[in-house]
């Protein structure tokens, strides 16, 4: 968090990846993505635009091995940036829920910014890859995002036939649900928890 601006910035450099990421909750959907993983670029663009977040990601990784490390570490960095941007969480709605159709597919994402990380992922795809992108990495990305952002994240893919459409619906719903959960509610005084802490 920077002053009153809900912005998180993360830099992560390992033997496998080198990532610089910034995330602004109260943005306009401005996106700058260079991740070496074209399908992930596309999904992150949809996520940010549907959530009205500003997102910048510069990432290099050992993609000659595979996409796993790069996708996983971007999930880690985005989660850490979100956690930083949320600050003390005072006044937020905390919960978010979104259904998004994409042609024949329907996805639902439900979020609780609870400080209790959990991923419940109910999705099965007809194809194991979209182009060069393994569909198993969607789970890897979402799990690391939920873990590092310390949020309870439920992803339910109700149905679909086209794997690209199904994953696209998930990322759009993720953006919209997170937008709702991070938005302010004037009726909320302090932290939205009976415990007085999130």
How would you concisely characterize the structure shown here?
The protein is α+β, with helices and mostly antiparallel strands and 198 residues long.
Helix-strand blueprint:
Layout: E1 7-13, E2 17-24, E3 31-34, H1 38-51, E4 54-61, H2 68-86, E5 95-102, E6 105-112, E7 118-122, E8 129-130, E9 133-134, H3 136-149, E10 152-159, H4 163-182
Parallel strand pairs: 3-4, 7-10
Antiparallel strand pairs: 1-2, 2-4, 5-6, 6-10, 8-9
Helix pairs in contact: 1-4, 2-3
Written account of the structure:
This protein is of the alpha+beta class and about 200 residues long. The protein has helices at about 40-50, 70-85, 135-150, 165-180; strands spanning about 5-15, 15-25, 30-35, 55-60, 95-100, 105-110, 120, 130, 135, 150-160. The strands form 3 sheets. A 4-stranded mixed sheet has the order 1-2-4-3, covered by helices on one side. It has a 4-stranded mixed sheet with strand order 5-6-10-7.
Radius of gyration: 16 Å
Looking at the structure, what is the overall shape? globular
Major beta-sheet overview: 4 strands, mixed
Q: Catalogue the unreliable spans.
A: none
| Secondary-structure element pattern, one letter each | EEEHEHEEEEEHEH
**Record field, number of beta strands:** 10
**Derived structural class:** alpha+beta
Mean pLDDT: 96
Give the count of helical stretches.
4
